[in-house]
Write a structure and sequence with these properties.
Blueprint: H1 21-24, H2 28-46, H3 54-65, E1 70-73, H4 80-90, E2 91-92, E3 95-99, H5 106-110, E4 111-117, E5 124-130, E6 137-141, H6 148-160, E7 162-165, E8 168-171, E9 177-182, H7 195-198, E10 203-206, H8 212-223, E11 234-235, H9 236-248, H10 253-264, H11 275-280, E12 281-283, H12 287-303, H13 311-322, E13 327-328, H14 330-334, H15 339-349
Helix pairs in contact: 3-12, 10-12, 12-13, 13-15
């Protein structure tokens, strides 16, 4: 092609690659404001179906925003399953529900290999059929009703975000969350989760009864023919952006020291433990609790529009983080002491603005 006939494409016609969502956000202040509005929008959409439970929703979202998992514990009929399935509708991501039963096998949730015959060539080969774990949001309904072997398969998926089937390890999609439910009343025929697996849940969330006004509203709303449908608010890319934003929130040294002392003071076999912890606990929280306090406090600050983390953010998430990471002894059980009360006493005993040692 000669110089006379060579065509030149104008600069205006050169298509630029589309910006990612993270590139569209300009500055940390705008990122924090987006996260605050996202939390508020999800709460609003869930309010179309779920009455009350704002604290439960907030803690579930903190678990999601910190790339973690949550366990919801409450008596039947408190809409735990409805809450999680409705939350999935507000997020443009894959959602699968697993109803755990005593006969559920690991391959039922991870997937299995089957022999596949090509209809054209007749060649036979193994083909992997993925299980319900291969989704972004997994509702593990009544997780304590399945045997330890299946619980162990869940453990690898939750911690490593991958599963191993037939000697091959396969990564789960990102983002990936397990939101599990558990009935605290009926324990016959159940398999209590071991401490090692409970520790994998960022939060153990207690779902309580509705207030008098909320129950009245539930009755009226349930009797209507049609209710409002929640709209999708966030997608997978935006969730990943929020997770990265949580990690960037700065934490002052005195907040690290406050979270560290809360955890170390529960270790009843050490000299640092507070007297009531030595009296009523059989073991205290491990280092994973310290990390969980900081990460959850970051997300708590973010959804409240803060650009910093304070000790009050750590205190706000302490109950749901610690209640399943400390164990009561026989003396505490005999006196009617609960882990919730122990955490409350810890927060009362440890000043938030104590000088760093």
């Amino acid at each position: 092609m000669t110089a006379e006939t060579e065509s030149v494409i104008p600069d205006a016609e050169i298509s630029e690659p589309p910006l990612t969502f993270a590139e569209q956000i300009q500055g940390d202040i705008q990122a924090v404001e987006f996260c605050r509005k996202a939390h508020s929008s999800i709460q609003k959409e869930l309010g179309k179906v779920i009455v009350g439970q704002s604290q439960v929703v907030e803690e579930i979202l903190i678990a999601i925003f910190t790339r973690s998992h949550a366990l919801l514990v409450g008596v039947p009929g408190l809409a735990k399953t409805l809450l999680i399935s409705t939350l999935a509708q507000t997020l443009r991501m894959g959602f699968r529900r697993i109803q755990f039963t005593p006969d559920l096998m690991p391959s039922d949730i991870t997937g299995t290999e089957v022999i596949y015959q090509d209809p054209t060539t007749g060649e036979k080969q193994f083909k992997f059929l993925s299980g319900p774990l291969f989704s972004n949001i997994v509702l593990a309904d009544e997780i304590n009703r399945t045997p330890p072997k299946t619980q162990a398969a869940m453990l690898e998926a939750m911690q490593e975000r991958r599963v191993t089937v037939g000697g091959t390890t396969r990564n789960l999609p990102e983002p990936f969350f397990v939101l599990a439910t558990q009935n605290p009343l009926e324990q016959e025929g159940t398999y209590p989760l071991p401490e090692a697996q409970l520790d994998r849940f960022l939060f153990l969330i207690h779902v309580g009864y509705p207030t008098d006004k909320e129950e009245f509203q539930i009755m009226k709303r349930a009797s209507d023919m049609e209710g409002e449908k929640p709209e999708a608010v966030l997608n997978a890319e935006q969730i990943l952006f929020i997770q990265s934003t949580v990690k960037k929130i700065p934490v002052p040294e005195h907040v690290y020291a406050y979270a560290k002392r809360i955890v170390r003071d529960t270790r009843c076999k050490t000299e640092e433990a507070l007297p009531f912890c030595k009296k009523w606990l059989s073991f205290g929280a491990g280092p994973r609790a310290s990390l969980a306090l900081i990460m959850a406090a970051k997300a708590h600050a973010l959804i409240n529009g803060q650009i910093y983390v304070g000790c009050h953010n750590v205190a706000a998430v302490a109950h749901s983080i610690l209640r399943h990471r400390i164990a009561l002894n026989f003396a505490a059980q005999g006196e009617g002491i609960t882990t919730h009360k122990i955490v409350t006493m810890l927060l009362d005993a440890i000043p938030q603005n104590e000088p760093i040692k």
